[in-house]
Amino acid sequence: MVAAAAAVAVGSPVSTSLLELNGLWGVAGWKWMFIAEAIPTILVGIFILFYVTDRPHLAHWLSEEERKWLITTLETERNLVNAKRKVSFWQSFRDPKVLLLTLNYFGIVGASVGMLLFLPQMVKQLGLTNMQVGWVSMIPYICGAIAMLTWGWASDRFGERRWNLFLACVVSTIGLIIAGRTIGTPWAIVGMSIAAIGFYGSKGPFWSMPSMILTGTAAASGIAWINAIGNLGGFFGPTAVGWAKDYTGSFAGGLYMLAGFSLLSAIVTAFWLHIPNPAPRDLVSVPAE
Hints:
Helix 1 (about 1-20) packs antiparallel against helix 2 (about 30-50), helix 1 (about 1-20) packs antiparallel against helix 5 and helix 11 runs antiparallel to helix 12. This protein is mainly alpha-helical and about 290 residues long. The protein is built from twelve helices and no strands. The relative contact order is 0.16. The radius of gyration is 21 Å and the shape is globular. The longest helix has 29 residues, at about 95-125. Helix content is about 75%, strand content about 0%.
């Protein structure tokens, strides 16, 4: 998941460089970008097809002890979740906790994608060249990649998900408000970097929560449902920014609207998203490396 933030960071200057190939061999720059960025994606897909397994016992890169530990831990945690409250495949689509997770994710995705798609245009307002825009656009997502690792570590360290998620949503909201108030200045980059820290810092705590209430086919359907509905925010967030820009002539209003998306996620988390972890952290000892 860190690759998502890292790809955006690296992709900004790389994509800008590929666009500069416009006209080479009679091919448009945007076509060069599509071709060059599609090839490694295809190669990674082929690699995953042969390397990634469906079950822990097939993971040949793990030692026998590690495989046994992972299988035992997964089975024990699954039994603990089922003993507390078992959700069926069909129930997963209407379970209140799943719907709250969906609403939370809708807000996070709406805010993050809304900023992502318009970030180059907002950075361009600083009077930079296209190449400079590509380099500056890296900054928020480098911060986001670091935040994903450190926030996930902290969440694991304290064994807590809900309030870590809430804090990440609040940080995103604050960052977007700062960006909106300072749009057109270098401080807007600071604000968007703070927002990216919140967006990507939320990933670890958030995606740890569905498996705390769902198992088996319900986990597969529930997580897919959260992703499917939540990702609709990727339509409404950018649409809101575009509408605000057309209506007011500034990105500030759009950034405030994105802050509203993030604030929605924070409110949902603070008031309703109480999901106790059924599996204690010290349930099973981790095998020595």
